[in-house]
Amino acid sequence: MVLQRTPKAALASMFFITVLHGGEKVDFAREVLPILSDKCFACHGPDTRKAKDLRLDSYEAATRNRKGIRSIDPDNLEDSELIFRIHDEDDPMPPEDDGKPLTEAEKDILTRWVKQGGEYASHWAFVPPIKRSDAPKNEVIDFYIEKGLKAHKPPVSFAEEASRDVLARRAALVLTGLPPEPALLEEFLADKSEKAYEQFVDRLLSSPGYGEHQARYWLDAIRYGDTHGLHLDNKRGIYPYRDWVVRAFNENLPIDDFVTWQLAGDLLPNPTITQKIATGYVRMNPTTSEGGAIPAEFQAKNNFDRTETLGTVMLGMTMSCARCHTHKYDPITHREYFSLLAFFNSTAESPLDGNKYDHGPAMKAPANPKEWEALASLDGHEEEAMESFTTTTLIARELPKPRVTRVLQRGEYHSPIGEALQPDVPAVMGSFPEDAPRNRLGLAQWLTADKHPLVTRVLVNRMWQRIFGYGLVRTPEDFGLQGEQATHPELLDWLAVEFREKGWDLKHILRLMVTSQTFKQSSRFRPDLEDPKNRLYARGPSFRLDAEVIRDIGLWSSGLLDPTMGGEGVKPYQPAGLWKALMHPASNTKDYVRDKGDRLYRRSLYVYWKRTSPHPMMTLFDAPNRESSCVKRSRTSTALQSLALLNETQRIEMARKLAERLVKSSPDDKARLDLLYKLLACRQALPREGKACLALLDTMNSRYAAAPEEAKALLTTGDSPANPDLNPVELAAWTQVIATVLASDIALSLF
Question: What is the mean pLDDT of the chain?
Answer without folding.
Answer: 94
